[in-house]
Amino acid sequence: LLGKTNTLYIPRIIMTGEAGGSSFILLEYIEGGNPISGFFKTFGKSLAGLHRNTNEKFGLDHNNYIGLLPQSNKQHTDWTGFFIEERILPQMRLANFSGQRAKRLDTLFKKLEEIFPPEKPALLHGDLWNGNYIISPTGTACIFDPAVYYGNREMDTAMTKLFGGFDKEFYEAYHYEFPLEPGWKERTDICNLYPLLVHVNLFGGSYMNQMDSIINRF
Prior knowledge:
- Helices cover 43% and strands 14% of the residues.
- The chain has 218 residues and is of the alpha+beta class.
- The strands form 4 sheets. Strands 1-2 form a two-stranded antiparallel sheet.
- α5 (154-162) crosses α7 (184-191).
- The longest helix is centred in the middle third of the chain and has 16 residues, at 79-94.
- It is globular and about 50 Å long.
- The chain starts with 12 loop residues before the first strand and ends with a helix.
C-alpha cells in the first residue's frame, strides 16, 4: 500500500508464505547508502506526499501488527472514535489498566473531540521512529516495518519525536508542503500515548511513567 504511492523508497516484496508453521515475508535487500544533500528536507517533503493519500474512513480493510502486538484497524468515520476504540482501549486491556489510571484516561477521552481538529484520514506508516528508516542506495530515506492504516497524520509526525533522530529540516519541509493544524505540538504527546502503551505492553518499566506524566498533564 505504501509502495503504490511512489512517495518514499519502500523495500520490494519478493515473496510471502508459510514455512515450518510460521508465516514469512521476503523483502528486497537494501544496501545502505550515503545521504543526499538536503536528506531530511526531502524526507519531510516525501512524508507529506504520503499523507496526502486519503480514504473515506479511518482504519483499514484488515488488521495488522505494530511490532509483535496485534493492531485493530476496524474502520470509523471519526478520528477520536477510532483512536479510543482501536488504539488506546485494546492496549489498556492488554496492560490490565484499572483504578485511577483508567479513570484519568476516561477523562482524557471526553476531551479529545475538542483537542483534535477535523482532518481527513491520511495514509500512515504507523510506526515511524528512527529505527524504521535507513538511507537507501539513492541517498534518500527508505522506510520499512510499517503498521499501516489511515489515521490522523499527526500520529506519524508525533512518533518521529518520541525517540528523536529527525533533523529540524524534516519538520520544516513537511510543514511547508502540508502544514499541520495549529496546536499540533501540544497534541504530540497525546498521539504518542499509543506507541507508549505498546511499549508498556512489550517492555513495561519507564514507559509507564512517561505515559502517566502525559495523562496527568491533560
